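Sample 3 of the quickstart, ligand magnesium ion:
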Amino acid sequence: MNTTPIRVLLIDDDEEDYILTRYIFDEFKEHQFSFDWIDNFRDGLAALNENRYDIYLVDYRLGERTGLELLREAVRNGCTAPIILLTGQGDKAIDLEAMQAGAADYLVKSELAAPLLERAIRYSLKHARSLEEIQHSTAKFHSVIQSASDAILLVNEDGEITLWNKAAEKTFGYREEEILGFPVTSLMAAKYAQKALGVGLRYTLEKVISRFSGQIIEAAGRRKDGSEFPLELSGSVWKTSEGVYYTAILRDITARRAVEDRLLHEASHDALTGLPNRAHFRGLLQNAINKTKIEPAHRFAVLFLDLDRFKVINDGLGHVVGDKLLVAIAGRLQAGVRPGDIVSRFGGDEFTILLDSVGSFEAVTEIAERLQSKLTAPFMIDKYEVFTSASIGIIMSDASYENPESFLRDADAAMYRAKEAGKARYEVFNKAMHVRNMNLLRMENDLRKAIERSEFRVFYQPIVNLRTGATDEFESLVRWNHPELGFIPPVDFIPVAEETGMIVPVGEWVLEESCRQIGDWRRRFPKRQLSVSVNLSAKQLMHPNLIRQVKEIMRSGTLHPDCLKLEVTESMVMDNAEAALEVLSELCALGVRLSTDDFGTGYSSLSYLHRFPFERLKIDRSFVGKMDSDAKSEEIVRTILTLAENLNLEVVAEGIETEPQLFRLRELGCNLAQGYLFSKPVAAAEAERVLTHGLKYKFPVAAGQSPYPIDADTVLEVTKIQ
Ligand code: C2E
Ligand code: MG
Ligand code: MG
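Result:
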């Protein structure tokens, strides 16, 4: 039982009514009441405003004023205590007005009796308490919502915003009064808003919220100023008797995204040049490969670039200059490709370029040429004028590639090929280059088997006398007829054979076979002074077997020593000069002739030519090849010829491909040459045809007056061709 009495105030200007009411109160059984009376409007209002009582009974008539006015004023002043209005007689209109004004109940005085009044008071108090609780929790709810750091909004079934908190205002820039009642699409990024409107806003809300209920999803919002931003969103549906509501809690994640983006960028880009790094490039290449699988017509290409002299620049001018050069190169490469193409720094001085959707093979080689010419223009770095060039490996997309690794491996092989072929050029990958990628063990095995299975062939390239057109000499060049890969050129397997030591047996076989062949020809063409020029490798030169083998060849009478010439390169000799000198001297003593091969590409020191017993030097084909277009190369050739003359050395020009080269070489006094102009290296049977019928190439001789002193016999020999 409640022990605190309920404080009741009657506001009534009629004393009789007070007494009557008092009596009724005395009859109350259940509750304890304290009962007070005020007889005028003004004091009554003061009591209400001060909230002195638990419940008020207010008479409709209060002198000049009415109880209804008092009720309204009290409610306006914030009174929450229940007010029961009393009237003389029942009046529906007043009843309604009273309820609307906030009265807890409405009673007719004449019907007033203890049970009725007691019940009315009880219910009114209970109701008021419930209301108060609701108000409290609403206020709590509001303060929680308003103080939340996340934007919170409520959207009704029609997609209109019905609740908006302070964080929402901060996030979107709309004040509450500007946004309430507006569709929630005003807060969505354009692409989402369009989609939502397309399929229907209500459908979208239903779908999104039911699908992702309880989850946090990422979307994009739009601020009042129109700017869009990433946000995180969680939502729920709220079904009430008044309809369905959707709540959304949103958080602007622009800052987090920026950090994530930065981290992602840093992880996938090279810090120096800002270009995509190797890992990122790999991913992009994988995408391109996948695309080709779906759309076989889609073709792409990769250029693998390696700078030719970067180490020299880096070591010579310092890392700071080196770094600046890399940045400048990155810039030129990017400026040299289309916007969709991707230039990446693959590592060190290597760059890779993914050319997306390339039309033709020619288009790709054109780009490679363009990039090469862009890189050859000098770079101004600090106070230095830096020159560089790049070797480029090109690979076209091909349905057989499954992963970026094999693709890049082959691009790299092509790039190496370009380096070996003289740098500052490009090479397109072909399957034979696969050999380079075989692991050493497999290559070694294959090489060993190749000897057993007689897979090697010696090809012969005629060395032509430029005065007479006669061909009495050949350079022997080894070929590997691989059972799976077909003919493999020496540049692809000789380095591996060197590394694995297999070059020794291979070289021995080549030497033996070349001597056997030339011995055979010498017997069949006894009038000719035929000779053969055989290449040696560094390992072979230093191997004790070499001398033994040469002696054996001489002893067996296969070949007279002066019919054999051995070619060594400058670097082979200079790497171990003392030991090399010993071997070369011994060979010389045996009567073998020695040539220095690829002259001009190594140290080219004069003392080297003096010290070693060479009879001949072979001008590297890189100079001969450029004679047509490059005055500097011609100057080098001229200098080498003068030098050779002074040192009493014979000269062979390698790689002669055009007639102008032939004319110039002859004018410069060069007597011997080999090159595609006359013949490529050919199999023994084909070489034999040259011996019987002469070269297919006709020396250009105008009738009667030759610009070149070619003797009549030779002209006959050369022109009687097939
Ligand atoms: P090398 O001794 O300088 O041989 C000349 C190379 O130039 C040959 O390449 C020949 O085919 C090529 N060549 C000749 N004329 C022209 C021309 O007009 N234009 C062009 N573009 N090229 C021309 P090949 O046969 O591929 O041999 C490459 C290198 O492999 C040789 O260079 C040599 O160093 C090495 N090599 C070849 N056979 C042997 C061998 O039996 N033993 C060793 N140790 N090395 C060998
Ligand atoms: Mg050679
Ligand atoms: Mg050479």
